[in-house]
Amino acid sequence: MTTKKNTLAEELTYRGLVNQHTGESIDEITSKERTLYLGIDPTGDSLHVGNLLILMAVRRFYEHGHKIIILVGGATATIGDPSGKTEERVLMDEKTVEENANKIRKQIQSVINTEDFKLVDNNDWLSKVSILEFLRDTGKYFTVNDMLRKESVKRRIEDPESSISFTEFAYMLLQAHDFSVLNEKYGCDLQVGGSDQWGNIVTGVELIRKKKQTEAHAFTIPLLLDKSTGRKFGKSEKGAVWLDAKKTSPFHFYQFWYNTEDESAREYLKYYTTLEESEIEKINKDSEASPEMRIAQTALAYEVTAIVHGKETAEKIKNISVALYSGDFKKLTHSEKEVLLSSVPSYKMVDEKGISIIDLLTETELATSKREARTFVESGAVTLRGEKIDDVEKLIKKGDVKDAITILKKGKRDIMLLYKD
Fold it and tell me: Could you report the per-residue pLDDT of 379-398, keeping only the tens digit for each?
C-alpha cells in the first residue's frame, strides 16, 4: 500500500527520518519538486538491511513526486569512503566493482518499487577526468583546513590507533565532484544519505554554490543503532542480513525482523514499511495490549519481506512461520514444507523400529553427548510436539511424526524438525 500523508515533510517527520538538512526547514527542501541523488558504493555484491532505511527514505521522496538518481560509485568504490570507518578500506579492482554494481541494481529497484529513476555510474566521468582538471575545477574551491575539520577525517587523525591515506582524504572532493556533475547534467539539486555522510554531502553543496552560484541542498537520515547491542543496525548473530536471497534466505530474512524486540518492532514499522499511519498506530496499540501475540513483529516481518522479496514469497514465509511457531503443519503446501525443511535444522526418520531419545538428541546435535542428552531429558528440557519427555528409555518412532513434520525441542529455543516421507 502506498504511503501518503499531506506533505512529504510531515511524512518524513512522522517516520523519524529527519536528521540534518540545509535550508531553514525541511519544508524548504521538500515543498519544491527536486531531483535528488543517493550514492551507493558497490563494495559488496549485495546490499544489506543497514542500507534499507535510506532506500526507504528515497522511496518516500519518489512517492511524493520527486525525481530520483541512484549513483553507483564504480569509481569511488575503488578508493573507499572514510566516513564511519576507523581503518583503511582494501582497494577493489574494477572488474569486481562492476560485478557488484550489476548485482545490486535489481535490489534497489525492488525496494524503491519502480524503474522510473536514473541509474548512473561515476566511473563514466571520473575515469575520464585528468588530475589537473580535477585540481583546477574542484580542488581549488576547498582549503585543507576545512577538510581537516570534517568529522570523518578529524576522527581518524586524532585516533592514535588509526590513520588516513591521501586517497581516502580526497574522497569528499570526489563525492562533491559527483554532485556537481549531476547538477550540471540533470539539474540534481539534492543529495540524501546517512548521518555519517553529512560532511561529504555538504562539501558538494558548497562546491555547487561556489562554482556555479546555484542553490543545492543536503538531507540526511539518523544513524540507526540496534538497541540491544549498540552496534549499527543490520547485523544478526550470524553476521550481516543481506537482501540477496542466496546470501540470506527469505526465511531467515523474515525471522530477523520477527525476532525484533517489542519496542523496536513498533518503531521499525514507521521506518521500514509503507503502511499508513492509522494502520501502524492500530498495530502498535494491539501489540502493546497483547505483546505475547507478536503482532507488530509479524506485520513488520511480512511487510519488509514483501518489499525485498515480493508479496508471494512473503506470504509463503509467513505461512511457514505460523506453522513453525504453532507446531501445526497440516495447512502447509508441499513447496512450503520443502522451504521449511531446507531452512530449519531437520532430521529424517527412516527406521520403523524407532530410535531412543538419547540417541536422537545426540544425532541431531541437540546434545553434544549421551550424558548431556540424559541430563536434558531428566531435567524436563526436552519436548516432542509440545509434550515433555522425561523417560530416558523412550523410543521415538516414525509414527510419532504427525503431519509428516514434528518439532523436537530442547529448552526454549533449540529445535529440530523430525520428518518422514
Answer: 999 999 989 999 999 999 99
